[in-house]
Each structure stands twice: as C-alpha cells, then as structure tokens.
Amino acid sequence: MTTPKMIENQNALDQYIDLLGDEGIEFIVDIIDTFLEDAPKNWKQIQESMAAQDHVTFRRASHTLKTGCATVGATTLSEKFLAMEKAGADNNIFSVQSLMSRCKTELTLLARELVSKKKSMQS
Questions:
Q1: Residue 2 to residues 5, 45, 86, 109, 111: CA-CA distances in angstroms?
Q2: Average model confidence (pLDDT) for the chain?
Q3: Model pTM?
C-alpha cells in the first residue's frame, strides 16, 4: 500500500525558489523547521483543550495548524483543521473527535514528507 502524499501543492514551498533564488532554499528549510517544531506543540494544545473543553484554545491551535499546513502545501489537511477551527468557534469541539485521529495520523505523515523534502533540498 502506498502512503498518500500529504503535500498536494508542491508550489506552496517551491515558489520561494522562483522568488528568492538560492536564498529560497534556506527560506523553505526555515519554514519546514518552524512547522516541525510548532506542530507538535499545537497538537498538544488541541488534545489538552479537548480534555478541558476549552473551545477558545482548541480553535486557536486548530487555526494555527490550518495555516501551517496550507503554508507547506498540505491543503487537504489544512481543510480538516479548518473544520476543527469552526467546531471550536461554534463551541462544538466534540463533533470533530473522529476527525482528530485522522489529523494526528496525517500530521505524522506530513512531518515525514517535510523531513524528506528538507533533506533533498540540502543535498
């Protein structure tokens, strides 16, 4: 079974090479590093806020992950976090519990893809 590609929009990151030349690679690596550092923290906030029924933190962390996923080109995952963000805004976070498990799995796959992309750019 083939692992699905999480980065559907390759141009989301690669556009920076067109804009910045060689400096674009360094910029992309910085974006990837920031995402890889921040995503687990935001995911933890989502889990903790679900347990505490803290809709505001749940919405904010979902928004941050939505934006981060869009930035790196993971558009489908970004849309899932948008649904979670909306659930937080509607004070209905329990409606997305089943979506959370898929997002966790897909975040892990996305992280692997980003690490691989970063390595290929640095070689």
A1: 9, 31, 31, 12, 17
A2: 94
A3: 0.94
